[in-house]
């Protein structure tokens, strides 16, 4: 069915099932990432460094896979690549049970991360393919609500399951979620683009049109890495555990509210109004963490980080999709997340050295400044272009799926 009205339909069956797959995927990620380092330490006597790598090995696998995930999705099709990758993810979740050594656990994490990257690229491309161009940022924001919900529910659920039952209970849940994601994917009816063989070229791995905005998101990712990696240790060192326990609830709550309308603002008024305001609020949130002396300051910091980073990710994704032809959508999405994964996954290495030298508060001050610098980078790579000021699109035909 061709949609010709001035406000075309946004929520379709394909969009809904893709949303459910994405939510289940991110729930699996957040359930595991919060418990994996401690699991490795308790089960295998891993050191803090080795336990940390058992957790971050997932990101290592995902980052490596981003180099070819877009090419793969564009070459063999969105739904087919999604189904195949979800099958491997189910097997990877099952493999956590018999992984009785640290080496095996790390290998499972790498494989899981790699196919998670392929699946996430595919499902995002599926969703973007049925979002009307004139509602691109709005639809992307709604799609990202699943990520926000999982970020709020997953870490708390992982900790609760391990405290009340066992790590095996977490593996049971993530396996069930992986199976559900696979089942939801079977119901996706996505009109595929014609495939062009997907020759292995630099463009198919790192799309040149998206790489500049990817550099901006790499810097943003380093800022966010300082939050998710070190806020618990920072809060313990400064007696702010109560505030830290509410930080991500505040983050998720404000992100959910803002994503209900910020996409419309971006569609109507262009990218800059959303990006610049989010950069400023993110920097304020990091500065509040650096200056925090009471629990309420940490909670308020969570609100500002949610306003900032929580708005930047869907806004940047909407930009990336608009910068590439439809047939190269997979490459565009994977390029954006490749740069983001590098920032989130490898940023903590440099930040750990900074903490050792100067402490947590200095790190958060530095990250606040880095986010401001990222805003200057955005100005040069996208913010000064005509496309950033007004979201204009050529007419497109969108099929109900």
Automatic annotation (TrEMBL):
The keyword Disulfide bond does not apply. Pfam families: MFS_1. It is found in: Cell membrane. It comes from the Bacteria. One of its GO terms (cellular component) is plasma membrane. Keywords: Membrane, Transmembrane, Transmembrane helix. The keyword Transmembrane helix applies. InterPro entries: MFS (IPR011701), MFS_dom (IPR020846), MFS_Exporter (IPR052714), MFS_trans_sf (IPR036259), Sugar_transporter_CS (IPR005829). It is a multi-pass membrane protein. Its main location: membrane. GO terms for molecular function: transmembrane transporter activity. The chain crosses the membrane at residues 16-40, 52-69, 81-97, 103-127, 139-161, 167-188, 209-231, 243-261, 273-292, 298-324, 336-357, 363-381. This is Permease of the major facilitator superfamily protein. It comes from Corynebacterium vitaeruminis DSM 20294. The lineage of its organism: Bacteria, Bacillati, Actinomycetota, Actinomycetes, Mycobacteriales.
């Amino acid at each position: 069915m061709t949609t010709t009205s001035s406000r075309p339909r946004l929520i379709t069956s394909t969009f809904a099932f893709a949303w459910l797959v994405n939510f289940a995927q991110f729930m699996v990620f957040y359930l595991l990432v919060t418990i994996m380092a401690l699991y490795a330490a308790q089960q295998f006597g891993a050191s803090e460094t080795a336990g940390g790598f058992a957790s971050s090995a997932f990101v290592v696998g995902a980052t490596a896979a981003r180099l070819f995930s877009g090419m793969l999705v564009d070459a063999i099709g969105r739904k087919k690549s999604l189904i195949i990758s979800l099958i491997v993810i189910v097997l990877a979740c099952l493999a956590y049970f018999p992984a009785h050594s640290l080496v095996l656990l790390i290998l499972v994490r790498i494989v899981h991360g790699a196919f998670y990257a392929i699946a996430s690229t595919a499902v995002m491309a599926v969703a973007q393919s049925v979002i009307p161009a004139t509602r691109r940022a709005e639809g992307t924001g709604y799609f990202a609500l699943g990520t926000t919900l999982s970020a709020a529910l997953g870490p708390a659920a992982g900790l609760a399951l391990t405290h009340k039952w066992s790590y095996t209970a977490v593996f049971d849940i993530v396996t069930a979620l992986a199976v559900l994601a696979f089942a939801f994917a079977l119901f996706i009816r996505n009109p595929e683009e014609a495939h062009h063989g997907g020759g292995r070229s630099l463009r198919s791995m790192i799309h040149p049109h998206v790489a500049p905005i990817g550099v901006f998101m790499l810097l943003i990712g380093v800022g966010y890495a300082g939050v998710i990696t070190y806020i618990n240790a920072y809060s313990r060192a400064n007696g702010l555990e109560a505030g830290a326990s509410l930080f991500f609830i505040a983050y998720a709550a404000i992100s959910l509210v803002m994503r209900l309308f910020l996409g419309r603002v971006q569609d109507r008024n262009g990218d800059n109004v959303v990006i610049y305001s989010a950069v400023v609020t993110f920097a304020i949130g990091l500065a509040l963490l650096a200056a925090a002396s009471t629990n309420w300051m940490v909670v308020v910091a969570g609100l500002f980080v949610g306003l900032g980073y929580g708005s930047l990710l869907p806004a940047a994704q909407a930009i990336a999709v608009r910068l590439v032809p439809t047939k190269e959508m997979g490459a565009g999405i994977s390029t954006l997340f490749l740069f983001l994964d590098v920032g989130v996954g490898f940023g903590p290495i440099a930040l750990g050295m900074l903490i050792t030298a100067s402490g947590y508060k200095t790190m958060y001050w530095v990250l606040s400044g880095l986010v401001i610098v990222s805003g200057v980078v955005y100005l040069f790579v996208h913010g000064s272009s005509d496309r950033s000021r007004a979201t204009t699109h050529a007419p497109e035909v969108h099929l109900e799926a």
